[in-house]
Structure formats: C-alpha cells, structure tokens
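Example record

The entry below shows one chain as it appears in the dataset: sequence first, then structure tokens.
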Amino acid sequence: MKKMILGACLALTAALPLTSAAQTSAYPNQTVKMLIGFSAGGPTDVIGRILAQQMTMDLGQSVVVENRTGANSLIATREVAKAKPDGYSLLFASLSHNVNKILLKDKAEYDPLASFAPVSLVANLPLVIVTAYDSPYKSLKDLLDKAKSAPDAISYGSAGNGGSAHLAAAMMGTMANAKMVHVPFRGNAPALTEVIAGRVAFMFYPMVGIAGHVENKRLRVLAVGSPKPMPEFPGVPTMDASGFPGFEQTAPWIGMFAPAGTPQPIVDKLNASIKKALAKPEVSKRLKELGAQPIGDTPAEFRQFLVKDAERWDRVIKASGITTK
C-alpha cells in the first residue's frame, strides 16, 4: 500500500512541470488586459493602443487596453503588482513607474523591480514645451521673464505629481530661478486641453500629436527637449540652445511590465510580440510620425535601464526639491 501511495506521489510530482509547461505553451488562451494609468488620448495611451492592436494579431487573442487613471499611474501600477502572474494582466507604464516609488517610498506599496517582471522598453518620447497659440508668450524667454517678474503668475500642467511634465518644468524653474504653479491633471490629454484653452500657461508634452495642433494654430511650441532641432517644428530652438543643457534626459520612456513571478516563457513571448510589432515598417513609421523613438529591447536590458533611470530621477528630484505635497 505504501509503495502504491509513494508511486502515485512521484507520478504527480513528475507531471506538475509538464502541466505548467503546457499552460505556458498555450498562452494566451483568453483576453489579455493592458492597464494604462493615464487618460485615453494621452501619449502613453495612444502608443499603447497601437501596440495592443498589433499584439492582438500576433498572439491570436485580444489585447485590450483599460485605463485606470489617477495618482500619476499609481492606481494601475498597484493593480498589476497584485495581479495573478499569469500574463493576463499587464502594465503599460512610463517614468512614473520609478518616480512614484522615489517620491512616496513605502507609501507607493510596490517596488519598481521586485514587484514586476520587465518585458520590454518600447519607446522614448522627447518632450516639447507648448503654450496656447494666442498666448502672450511667443518665446521661452517671454514665459520665463513673466515668471521671474511675477512669481506664481505662470502655471504649468502635467499628468500628475512626479510625472515627466512636472519633473521637466520643475527642473526648468530651478535652473531659471523662477517660481511657477504646478497644476496636475489625471493625464496629459486633459492637461493639454487646458493649455490650448489658455487656462494653464504651458506644459512639457511628449511630441505625440502636437504637430496637428500646431498646424491648426491651437498650440505654439516654444522649445524642444531633443539634442537637435526637430524638423517638424522649423525655427524652434532646443532647450539646450535656450540655456537649459541636458534636457534631452527628461524624455519620458514607455514600457511593458508583467507581475513578478510571471513564467519566463510568457515574458519572452510577450517580448517577442512587442519586437515583432515595432519591427513592422508601418508601425515604426506611425510611431515616428507621432514623435516617438521606437526601441524594443530584452527583459534583461530593460531591467538594467530601469536601475539607471531610477538613479537619474532620484538626482533630479533632490536637486529640484520636488515633494508629494
């Protein structure tokens, strides 16, 4: 009898890896959720939806974008961190992934690396500084002169406290010795709407979708945060040429995460699907037209990038005096 029980246990133990392997090889066999912590229509959302459409075709199952807005993507991040590590709940995140932890520390309730399995860095999004087309500020100098002469008279929008637009504007204010008012929103898109309406003076915005607003005379670009001038905005100076060196480092990144503990074959399958999508000429062209710089690296390379990115933003936050208040 004991031999029979022992034999049954050994048989069950031997079968477990096979069952796990079978489940992994069958992935995905149901809808995959891609959570985005910012509002629909913003840069992260637009690129996430392009990627989700391509991954749907490649994986043979729907990859559905769900927006969980609020707290600079903290709501979406926490949800995926606590999700079952089976590859069916993914996070499409930006630099707030690292920044929230730096600002909130233990209150963030997640660790950027330990709570997640990095899948791939998808793209970088150079920032441009924009104001309403009919704004009285026709140059960055005009804007900063007003900020210096009338502290708190100039407001700037962002997708939330600690987001790329907040960090870039705070850094500029520190470097220019100008005091300005931060107005956070639940995403870049609603913030930009207020800038276009003239209720917020300016904001740093990823280049995605800006060219159309400029062409239709809704926005004016005052400077670009890229190493070289952008051909899309002829005559517009770089931040470096405007007296703010190193601003290209503020370019927000976007990338894909799965919960920690997700089987490596699933992470690798998702990574391969992302790379396949980014390699398509029509996708690459579309992203570049939006102002994004496609990347697509390995999970290990993305992890290494995240470590360096956290170190860089920690330095910026300390130098700028940014807090959660």
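Notes for this example: Residues 127-250 form a domain with the D-Maltodextrin-Binding Protein; domain 2 fold (CATH 3.40.190.10). The chain has eleven helices and eleven strands.
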